[in-house]
Amino acid sequence: VLKGKEGEQTRELTINIPKERIKESTSLRINISPSMAANLLDALPYLADYPYGCVEQTMSRFLPAVIVAKTMRDLGISAQDVDAYIADVLEPRHDPQGHPQRRSDPTYSRLSQMTADSLKRIYDFQHSDGGWGWWKDDNSDRFMSAYVIWGLGLARDAGIDVKGDVIANGAKYLQVQLVEEEDHPDMLAWMLHALASVNSTSEFENKQRTRLWDMRDKLNSYTRALYALSENRRGEGERAKILAQNVLNGIDEDQQNGTAHWGESGVNYRWSDGGVEATAFTVKALSQIDPQSQYLDEAVKWLSLNRRGASWKNTRDTAIAILGLADYLKATHELSPDYKYQVLVNGKVVREGHVDSSNVFTFDRTIDIPADALKDGDNKVKIVLNGQGSLYAAAYAKYFTLEEGITRAGNEIFVERKYFKQSVKPTLMKGYNEDWAPLKDGDRVRSGDRIRVDVTLDAKNNYEYLLAEDYKPAGLEAVELKSGPGEAIDLGRDGRESDGRTPLYQEFRDQKAAFFIAHVKQGKHLIRYELRAEVPGEFHGMPDQAHAMYVPEIRANSDEMRVSVDDAPSADKGQ
Fold it and tell me: How far apart are CA 94 and CA 81, in angstroms?
């Protein structure tokens, strides 16, 4: 990442490409972007075109687009350009050659129509007691009612004409319901946050705000961020600062990967456990209360990496993530750059240009470098920025290697494979003691020896549908032959085995063992199985290859492993 202020800023990436490769297979892709959060526009079509229309999805459909539009206007982009940007994203047009075509008609606004239709539906779904359920004929639900009131408050702040009586009746419903949740601090924080967003004040709220302050140590990361936001909105700056500092206690930081998040990054069953929403609300809180926080960029990177394509896990996750990123953009002014840039590969300029608010959303982020522009060994990618703003860059090389002793590499996931030989030793008191001695590359074993394989998968974020294919040396065969359910052992930060297990499906084939993991939490996971040395000879265990099945650029390989198998002495045969 480059942060331009005064003078010229330069960063260099080194990509090592081995000489022993199929040269025609080599390519290099460089991704650059003026903002880590500008890609939030990519998620708007998913929300706008979602095929169902419950209360939550109706709010999530239009609200993020409204907030993004306001954010763009606040940062100095003209209203006409904002309408054109949003319209192009929600309903893209192309010329006869298939190239994207910008609209020039400022009167076109799908956003206005979508907003009007959504508000009409929300008004119609409100119950006589002022609350909302999931659907029109459900009973009123405190969580859903608070979500609607919060959303209507944001829409009104963004300049949308929202019926005052709808907000007032909804606020009254929540005020009365506060006492029912006074012993549940997480839900209490959610409801008080919604009421603060519409500037509601009442004796009910003041009583529960005091109660919640006394119970704040029981809040989790998600709801502590909510409480910080609501107290900040109510003008309680000192309380908000304390709560924002307390939010940092729940941080899960990966300094090596430059990411940070809050909440559970894997499967969760309670609304306040979700990592995407907890991190997004923390980003909102820090952007408003502590915009200089060192963790903001790390949290935004985590959110960006944990998307599924252009969106997150569901409509609410996606909507809240966009709202958090919008606050980050306002705090960092990343949508108001003004700089010139160059990208050079091995001293040759491959892309240059100027970035300002007029093209920050239409910026071409991808640079593909052909094989003939790359050389054996170190390839230098140089990024130069001159002016005000940020430029994020990443490089991804792809090639078919022919080298001996292939070394491990990875992008967002990393894999390490180790072999161990079974050793059975007699003891004085306990009979025989089983041990596993580590094997090094090139070591020799005997036919009949049992070999344990430890494959450690290090996931830098939460992922879905990972496949790890472990290629075995040809002279060794898997002890387990039956495919089916299995599990990976979750490792702690110190690398030790924990009680946690991650389910997987395993298949044992002639050339490899394949492990399919549907949900992988951030962290290290150990896959373990056994081989038996059978055929004498010199063999290569090709690298274990792991990748996200639907995001192929997220992949890794282990080191190659060479093993020699000797024929067992006649006295050992049959044992």
Answer: 18
Is the pLDDT assigned to residue 552 strictly greater than 70?
no
Compute the distance between CA of residue 477 and CA of residue 470 in angstroms, rounded to an integer.
12
Distance of CA 23 to the CA centre of its chain: 33
Q: Which residues pair with 491 in a beta bridge?
A: 497, 524
HSE-up (13 A, CA, CB side) for residue 204: 18
Q: Given the structure tokens 């408050």, which residue do they identify?
A: 153
Torsion angle of the four alpha carbons 400, 1, 266, 150, in this order, in degrees rounded to the nearest 10: -140
Confidence bin at 331 (pLDDT 50/70/90): confident
- Pick from 99-113, 323-337, 517-531: least confident: 99-113
Mean pLDDT check: name the lowest of 326-335, 460-469, 564-573.
564-573
Please, which residues bridge with residue 261 across strands? 252
Count of CA atoms in the C-beta half-sphere (13 A) of 575:
12
Determine the Cα–Cα distance for residues 194 and 147; give it in Å rounded to an integer: 7
**Amino acid at residue number 510:** D
Q: Is the confidence at residue 356, as pLDDT, over 90?
A: no
**How many Å separate Cα 122 from the centre of its chain?**
31
- Can you tell me whether residue 431 is helix, strand or coil? coil
Are 247 and 221 a contacting pair, CB within 8 Å? yes
3-state secondary structure 166-200: HHHHHHHHHHHHHHHHCCCHHHHHHHHHHHHHCCC
Q: CB-based contacts of 91: which residues, under 8 Å, 6+ apart?
A: 110
Q: Which amino acid is at 82?
A: V
- List CB contacts of 63: < 8 A, sequence separation 6 or more: 151, 154, 155, 319, 323
Q: Which of 549, 558, 566, 494 is nearest to 524 (CA)?
A: 494
pLDDT tens sequence across 187-221: 999 999 999 999 999 999 999 999 999 999 999 88
Nearest-angstrom CA–CA distance, 217 and 316 = 26
Residues 156 and 165: their CA atoms lie apart, in Å, by 13
At residue 408, the 3 state secondary structure works out as coil
pLDDT at 267: 46
Q: Distance between CA 247 and CA 289 in Å, rounded?
A: 12
The whole-number pLDDT of residue 107 equals 47
Residue with tokens 């898997």: 478
Say whether pLDDT at 265 is over 70. Answer: no
Query: From CA 63, how far away is CA 70, in angstroms rounded?
Result: 11
SS3 category, 149: helix
Asked whether residue 268 carries a pLDDT value surpassing 50, the answer given is no
